[in-house]
Structures are given as C-alpha cells and as structure tokens.
Amino acid sequence: MTDFDWKKVRSHLLVAVVAVGVAVALVPAKPLSAQAAGPAVGGPRGLPDFTELVELLGPSVVNIRTVEKVKSGGRSDDEMQELLRRFFGDRVPNMPRPNPRAQPEEEQQPRGVGSGFILTPDGFVMTNAHVVDGADEVVVTLTDNREFKARIIGADKRTDVAVVKIDATGLPAVKIGDVNRLKVGEWVMAIGSPFGLENTVTAGIVSAKQRDTGDYLPFIQTDVAINPGNSGGPLINMRGEVVGINSQIYSRSGGFQGISFAIPIDEASRVADQLRSSGRVTRGRIGVQIDAVMKEVAESIGLGKAQGALVRNVESGAPADKAGVEPGDIILRFDGKPIDKSSDLPRLVGNTKPGTKSTLTVFRRGATKELQVTVAEIEPEKAQARKADAKPADKAKSSKAGEPLGLAVSDLTDAQKAELKLKGGVRVDAASGSAARAGLREGDVILQLGNSQVANVKEFEAALARADKTKAIALLVQRADSANIVLVRPAPK
Q1: Does residue 200 fall inside a structural domain?
Q2: Are 185 and 37 within 8 A, CB to CB?
C-alpha cells in the first residue's frame, strides 16, 4: 500500500478550491432585470433599489401607539384579611381600614403598537381598525419624533380600516396608486413598526391578487415580511404609490412565514372617504344566504361552468324576497356585473348605496331570469334562532317512487307548510343508500328535482321518471331555514 503525503494533497486541494472560487468570482453576473416587474428606482437593470422610495415615502409613514385606561384595583379588604390569616393565623395584625368612599384610580397601560400613513397634509391618517379598537388614547409619532394625540374619526371592522386625525399641517401625504395596474410578481415594499421597531423597511413581490379571506375584501397576497406592529402600514409599488394596507399574516407560529395580506387601497379609500364624511360606513344588503356553486352541481343542472352564488335562504321581507328570489336560485349577475364566485356578490351589493334599484340575473330551473331589487342598508348582525327540523303533525303516506335514490317521501301537511313558510315540496321520511351518502336525512324537504319544481309527491314522481338515471340527479333540499343543492346518484339496477 502506497503512503500518501496528506499535507501535500491538502495543500493542492486548497489551491484548487481557491482557484475555482476565483474563477466563479470572475464570471460576469447575468443581468436580473427580468425579475423586476418594472424599472427599478435606482436604474433600469438589475435588482430594484429601494433607497429613493424610502427617502420619498419614509416621512409619510407613522408609528401608532395606543393606550387603555384601566382602574387600579388592589385586593378588596376581605381578600386582604383572608390573605393575612393564611400567614398569621388568628393573630392577624391590625391594618388600617380603607376609605370606602375612595374611588379607584385610573392607570394608563400600553395597549399595542401599529403603523399608519398620512392621507392628507392636514393630518388625516389611515391605519387598521384593529390597531385602534378599544383604545382610550391614540398617539401618533412622526419620523421627526414629533408626537400627537390623535382622535379616531371612524373605524370599520368589516374591512379593518380606520382613520384618525392629528392637529398638524404641511405633512407629507402619500400618493394613492391604481390596484388594477398591480401585477403578480411585481416588486413591492412595506414600511412599518414591527415589534415597535419604527420605520422598518421590508420588500418582496406580489404573490397573488383577489385572495378571498373575507366577505368584503379581495386581499393582495405578498411575501413581504410583515410582523406584529406592521399592521396599518402601507404597501408601496415601485412607482412610489400606496397600493394596499398591510393587515394580516398567515402563520402557525405567530411570526412571519412568507405569506402576508394587504387590503387593496381602492377598497380602503372607499371606506376612508365614508369615515371622513360621516364617521361610519353604510353598505347595501339584499337579504340572502349564499354558497359556492360546485362544478358537478353546475353540470347537473345545465349551468355549464361553476359560477354565480347559490341562494340557500331568502330572508322573509328582505329586498330579495320582495324581488322574487327563491332558495335554489343561482345569482349570475348583479347590475350587469358577473358573479364569477359567490364571494363577489356581497362585495358588489355591499358597495352599492342603499336605496339603489339594481338588476339581478338568476338561473332558475334551466333558464335565466332578471329580477329588480331595491338594495337596503345592512343592519348589525343578529343571531337568528334556527328552527328545529319539521316533524309531521299528521303522518302522510310515504311514496316508494324514490327508492332508486334511497328515498321515501311524502306530501307536506298544511301545518308543515305554514311552519316552514313553503308553498310546496316533499318531506323526506327516510334516507338510505345513495341519498344517505349524499347527506339527506329525515325531515329534509325536497323543493326541486333536476330543473323541475316539486310541489307534491305526484310532481316528484313525474320529475324522477324523466330524469336520466345514469347520471347524478340534483335535488334542491331545504333543512330548517337553509337550502342547498345535493347530488344523488341512483343505485344501479
């Protein structure tokens, strides 16, 4: 076996590694301009330079500190005496008795830290509603270390937007951008106070647009580092325009994990304008409970593609009820604007001024229909008691015509129709096989089979006879006060 001179080998390896490193270092860097969504502030090529943006917009971003006043309350006299007995037994020392008329003092306790940005030179500042919610005092600190006590002009929890006002003039206001021009993959920057670290700058790209995480907001998703304290700060594009308010993060640990969400500035500005003019936000409502339209459901009822909002319930006396909307309808358009997914409807209706007459395009039993609805103002959410499943007062005779679907059905009694506020339908007396697997159960009411309305057992049997038994059959089913479309596959013969 040959002996190796390890020292010599090692020296040769080190020389080789250094040589490779030098060679790599001498290779010209490939331009990365294709990675930037637009020309960088610092130059047309390479990765973007954010320095000019920070210098331009940094002074427009503020730190928001909130304070909550709490009553200082020590232990009551009885609690103190009990505590003393535990230490001294029966030999409790004589303690001065507190004055029963003395009022507890108020203490100011820090409540939280957030961010915001200056909307107007005369001191209007936009932030998140959750930043100022419950605060007794709001303190705004500018980048020049000036502090102002702010008053809350208004806050809207539904969109998480708030406006506060400080008494100052000549402030550097931000420029509002056009969200419609924002593209996925575009570079964006955030400025805020994560963990109280004022004027922290982070950057990333737009990961997605129109991300549904709420009733009224299609969020902008980014990979910009956002942490507690960034809330309310601006999301800025490479043109130096504010395109969103940093509001939420997706996290399993409580810290940033690469997914953050911003409120689109067009939505926020619409809310802010109302808050500044009246201190509150008014929204439209039509009084429907809706659900998504699944692909299989759309195909089974002849709708084609999955689109629109499936009406599960119509509130009695609400605008939709007066307009003739029925459970099982699929709303395809509102005032001519398409409803691509169910979450589009509450946003469109919510942004409509109460009292406006609008047109609903609905898909009902294989055909489209236009209905006129007068939008009402949304009311505070109320908990509505749900009705118990209907129980037959007088048991009607069950039909066995539904056996291919695993169903036994009967006509609704007059008492059941009155209780459920229905004009017709058939009651499910038993569900097994395919029907049970689809989720049907005793007490459900079938209102429609395929695209045929079902008012009684006779109509149910006729509609089932016409149905294609080789495919899944769509049933419009009401349970308590909510309706849904259920697909049931007939059992093979």
Answers
A1: yes
A2: yes
On whether both 274 and 290 belong to a single domain, the answer is no
Q: How many domains does the chain have?
A: 4
Q: Which two tokens stand for residue 416?
A: 């059941």
* Strand, helix or coil for residue 73: coil
The reply to whether 210 and 268 lie within a common domain is: yes
Contact status, residue 460 vs residue 401, Cβ threshold 8 Å: yes
Helix and strand numbers, DSSP H then E, in the chain: 11, 26
What span, in angstroms and rounded, lies between the C-alpha atoms of 145 and 386?
55
Is residue 95 included in any domain, yes or no? no
What is the distance between the terminal CA atoms of the chain, rounded to a whole angstrom? Answer: 81
Low-confidence ranges of the chain (pLDDT < 50): 1-40, 42-43, 74-75, 83, 86-88, 381-394
Among 121, 138, 165, where does a domain finish?
165
Q: CB neighbours of 23 closer than 8 A, spacing ≥ 6?
A: none
Whole-prediction pTM value? Answer: 0.64
Show which of 377, 393, 413 is a domain's final residue: 377
Gap between the Cα atoms of 387 and 295, Å rounded = 30
Range of the domain at 317: 284-377
Q: Write out the DSSP string of 150-194.
A: EEEEEEETTTTEEEEE-S--S--PPPB--GGG--TT-EEEEEE-G
| 369-383 per-position pLDDT tens digit | 999 999 999 875 443
* Backbone conformation region of residue 275, classed left if phi is above 0, alpha if psi is from -120 to 50, else beta: alpha
Looking at the structure, tell me whether residues 476 and 421 fall in a common domain: yes
Q: Are 431 and 442 in contact (CB under 8 A)?
A: yes
Tens-digit pLDDT profile for residues 263-313: 999 999 999 999 999 888 888 999 999 988 989 888 888 888 899 999 998
Q: How far is CA 252 from CA 10, 258, 261, 415, in A?
A: 47, 11, 15, 51
Beta strands in 10-72 (DSSP E): 61-71
Are residues 243 and 157 located together in one domain of the fold? Answer: no
Residues marked active site are found at 130, 160, 231
Q: Which residues contact 109 (CB under 8 A, 6 or more apart)?
A: 67, 68, 69, 70
71, β-bridge pairs: 106
Cβ–Cβ < 8 Å for 166, 123: yes
